[in-house]
Amino acid sequence: MQDYLEAAVRDVLTAPEARVDDQVGYAALLLAVSGALDEADRLVTQWLARTERPVTALAADPVRARAWAMLFEARGGRPGWAEGLPPLDLDAEERAHTASLRRPVSDLDGVLPPGPVAEVVKHVAPARPDRVRTALADGDLGLWATLAGPRPDVATPAATRALAPALVAGADPLGLRDWAPACAGALIAALHERYPPELGTWPELIAEIVRLRGHDTATGTAGSLPPPASEPAIRSAELRLGVELPADHREFLRTCDGLPADVVFPRLLGTADLRAKGGVVVLSEPAVLLLSAGHVVEVDPVLGTTVHASFRAALVRHAALLAQAG
C-alpha cells in the first residue's frame, strides 16, 4: 500500500479540496475496514479541525454514507465527529445494498456514455454475476480481499450490514491493521502542512500543545503548566547564562516557565534550570534543543540535526508532530 499512501499524501498536500476530501474519506473507511476504528476517528477528527468543512463531504455518495451508517450500528454508536451525518433507514439501506450486490454486470457497462443507447445496451447485453460483489453477498471477506485489487472498494463491504460487525471486531480482511497508524499519521501530517493551525499568540500555541497532549490545565491533571516566569527571573537567568535570550523565548517563559516532556518532545527548561556550556544555551532536558549563536538547534540521534528559524518555530513543529502522533 506504499504507492497508495504516497499518492494520497500528495493529493492532500496539492490537489483541489474536493480531491482532499475524497482521499480522506476513502482512507478513513480503509482504516475502519481494517479494524482500526481509532485511527479512522483520529484522521477524520483532524480533517475536521484543519479544514472546517462539513463531515458530509466524506460521505458524498450513497454507498459511503451507507457504509458509515452500518459501521456505526456495528460499533454501538456514533463517534463525536459523525454528528453531522444524517441518519439513515438501515433496513431500507440494507435492502438496496443487497440488491446491488446481486445485480448482474455486463462487460459493456461503462463503455458507452450515459444515455438512451446505453440503457438499451444494458438490457440486451449478456450479463454475469460480479465476483467481487457476490463474495460480499455470500459473506466471504477472504475471497473479496483476493479479488479486490490494488485500491479496493472498501465502502461496499462496510456497507454490507451482515459483514460490518466482523469488520468492527477486527476481521481485517486486507491485513492492514498494523499499517493503519502509519497511514493515519502520514495523512494527518499532510493535513497539518496544508492547513496549518492559526496559533497567533504564545498562550494560543501553548494551549494547542496542551490540548494535543490531552491534558487539562484547568483541573491540574498531569502535564499542567508551570506559572509564567517573572521579568526579574528571566533577567536573572540571562545574567547567569551570559546571553540575552531571543525575544520569542522570553515570550515563552512569560507564558509558562518551562514545559513538561511528552511523547515527542523533551522537557523545556524554565528560568531556574537553563544552563550554558561553551556559549551554547541548553533549552531542554535531555539536551536536544540548544541555542547557539542566535539559532535554535534540535539534535535528534535518529533524525539528525535541525536548525529552526526560531524557538517558536520549533514549538509549532512540535505541535504538528503531536497531532501526527495522536
Order of helices and strands: HHHHHHHHHHHHHHEEEEEEEH
Provide the helix percentage: 40-55%
**General form:** elongated
Radius of gyration: 26 Å
DSSP summary: helix tally: 15
- Mean pLDDT, all residues: 89
Enumerate the strands of the largest sheet in spatial order, edge to edge or round the barrel. Answer: 2-3-5-6-7
Number of strands: 7
- Given helix and strand content, the structural type is alpha+beta
Could you name the ranges where pLDDT drops below 50 across 5 or more consecutive residues?
216-223
Largest sheet: 5 strands, antiparallel
How many structural domains in the coordinates?
A: 2
Percent strand: 5-15%
Distance between the termini: 21 Å
Quickly describe the structure.
InterPro entries: Knr4/Smi1-like_sf (IPR037883). The chain has 326 residues and is α+β, with helices and mostly antiparallel strands.
What does this structure look like?
- By secondary structure, the protein is of the alpha+beta class.
- Helix content is 51%, strand content 8%.
- The protein has helices at residues 2-14, 17-33, 37-51, 62-75, 90-102, 116-124, 131-137, 141-147, 155-158, 164-168, 180-194, 202-213, 231-241, 247-255, 311-325; strands at residues 267-268, 275-277, 280-282, 284-285, 289-292, 295-300, 304-308.
- It has a five-stranded antiparallel sheet with strand order 2-3-5-6-7.
- A hairpin with a 2-residue loop joins β5 (289-292) and β6.
- The longest helix has 17 residues, at 17-33.
- The chain is elongated and about 90 Å long.
